[in-house]
Specification:
- The chain has helices spanning 11-22, 150-153, 183-187, 200-207, 232-237, 287-290, 401-408; strands spanning 88-89, 99-102, 121-122, 135-140, 146-149, 159-166, 190-199, 215-220, 227-231, 240-245, 248-249, 259-261, 274-280, 295-296, 302-303, 312-317, 328-337, 343-349, 357-358, 360-361, 371-379, 384-392, 421-424, 430-433.
- It is built from 7 helices and 24 strands.
- Helix content is 11%, strand content 28%.
- The radius of gyration is 24 Å and the shape is globular.
- The chain is mainly β.
- It binds the ligand Nc1nc2c(c(=O)[nH]1)N[C@H]1C(S)=C(S)[C@@H](COP(=O)(O)O)O[C@H]1N2 and molybdenum atom.
- Ligand MTE binds at residues 118-123, 165, 167, 191, 220, 222, 224, 226, 253-254, 267-268, 270-273.
């Protein structure tokens, strides 16, 4: 296949659809969906394809055209046929309230993560907060300390911006050997929403931050009272006090009624259920930034305050544990993102990194946001290794896992942004490999 010719025979895929529909004969197994519920979904769609009942096929009128459908609902939910598209929890923690689950990236389309599928990472569970009881205290080295109600905060001018959040522990099981079966397991501590809120700089103008203040402590109102020190420069630059997500108020899991958003910074600094910002001249050296969330380097010294999530990309289709339906046309597709800014370029390889081809970037390409890339591929049926590699607007190129290990060693779990490889075997099975 050649990406420069621009001519791809997509009819292969269409022919498959036609034969699957018309040649299926009378075999039918409707109603067996419940039995297959626990089986992994091994393709892109959220349902398990089953042979059609010929009575439902054109020109016949299917059963669902014979009577009026159901009535209206106050709040919609996904089709019952999509019920396998779920966040899946980790298997490594014993307690549910200090745990995390993964976004099903392989079943997402475009760049928005539906709010109900945004990954969850909680150190002390999800608190149930009545917004009228919630306050944000801004104190420390400020001229006019403020105790803001949600109502007062929401009277400030607002902005809406799309940004990803990635846990710094995303992909952390992949350092030594391929571990996750699916892209949900390898990369699912990653989600992207449209966040609406007030620029923190707008509120800080009212508070009057002492120009000598260099750090602020952000604290959450959960049982963990999760807190992190953040450079004041970042807070003035692009931080948002976010109260809404994808058009509605934040989900409790994402910090209802208020979270701090520090675009491009590691997930844990985006403090949920935000209740306090305290300005000072030094980091607070909290548990979260000393015992936790530091990276032990090769030489035994620990790297602290490694804020930015560097450029990374991953192919989500086809991806681990999927089953391809024979040779022919496939649209390879995935996500690229960078905590430094916009994605400039994504390359795709189908031969394990020997040759690279430019992928198409889907507009909009936004700063510190997921970018969807696509690449036309005609699979000839021989084994292939699929990879993606991105470059961000600073010119930084996503490295290989090998080169990251060479530079940083294997003492730390965090910030693994290496190139992911998916092997397609002769039978169309897709598995996680290191090359
Ligand atoms: N108050 C508070 N904020 C928090 C956390 C927490 O446990 N408590 N977890 C952090 C971590 S480790 C991550 S990765 C992100 C996850 O955000 P999400 O749950 O909305 O995906 O929230 C961060 N903010
Ligand atoms: Mo995290």
């Amino acid at each position: 296949m050649d990406d420069s010719s621009g001519k791809i025979n997509r009819r292969v895929a269409l022919k498959n659809i036609a034969s699957a529909t018309l040649g299926a004969g009378a075999v039918l197994s409707t109603g067996s969906r419940a039995e297959s519920e626990s089986e992994p979904i091994r393709h892109r769609a959220g349902w398990k394809p089953e042979p059609p009942n010929p009575a439902n096929l054109p020109p016949n009128r299917p059963a669902w055209m014979m009577t009026p459908g159901r009535g209206l609902t106050g709040y919609g939910s996904p089709s019952p046929y999509e019920k396998s598209v779920l966040r899946v929890p980790t298997t490594v923690t014993a307690i549910d309230f200090a745990s995390w689950n993964f976004t099903p990236l392989q079943h997402l389309h475009g760049i928005v993560t539906p709010s109900g599928l945004h990954f969850e990472r909680n150190h002390g569970g999800v608190p149930d907060i009545d917004p009228s009881q919630h306050r944000l205290l801004i104190e420390g080295m400020v001229k006019r300390p403020l105790l803001l109600t949600m109502d007062e905060l929401m009277r400030y001018p607002t902005v809406s911006q799309m940004h990803f959040i990635e846990c710094s522990g995303n992909t952390s099981k992949e350092w030594r050997k391929p571990t996750g079966k699916t892209v949900q397991q390898t990369h699912g501590l990653l989600s992207c929403s449209e966040w609406t809120g007030v620029r923190l700089s707008t509120v800080l103008d009212d508070v009057g931050v002492d120009p000598k203040a260099t750090w602020a402590l952000a604290e959450g109102a959960d049982a963990a009272a999760m807190d992190r020190s953040i450079p004041v420069r970042k807070l003035f630059d692009d931080a948002i006090l976010a109260f809404a997500q994808n058009g509605e108020m934040l989900r409790p899991s994402q910090g209802y009624p208020l979270r701090l958003l520090v675009p491009g910074y590691e997930g844990n600094m985006n403090i949920k259920w935000l209740r306090r910002l305290k300005f000072g001249t030094a980091p607070s050296e909290t548990y979260e930034e000393t015992a936790y969330y530091t990276e032990l380097m090769k030489d035994g010294r620990a790297k602290q305050f490694n804020f930015v999530m560097q450029a990374k990309s991953v192919i989500t289709y086809p991806s681990g544990d999927m089953q391809l339906d024979g040779p022919g046309y496939y649209e390879i597709s995935g996500f690229a993102w960078s905590g430094e800014g916009k994605i400039r370029r994504v390359d795709v390889s189908t031969d394990g990194g020997r040759t690279w081809h430019r992928a198409q970037l889907q507009e909009p390409v936004l700063t510190k946001c997921l970018t969807r890339f696509r690449f036309d591929w005609v699979w000839d049926g021989s084994p292939a290794v699929l990879q993606s590699r991105c470059v961000d607007e600073t010119g930084y190129e996503q490295p290989t896992i090998k080169s990251i290990i060479a530079a940083r060693g294997l003492n730390s779990n965090y910030h693994l942004n290496g190139i992911q490889s998916w092997k397609v075997d002769r039978n169309g099975g897709v598995t996680n490999v290191h090359v």
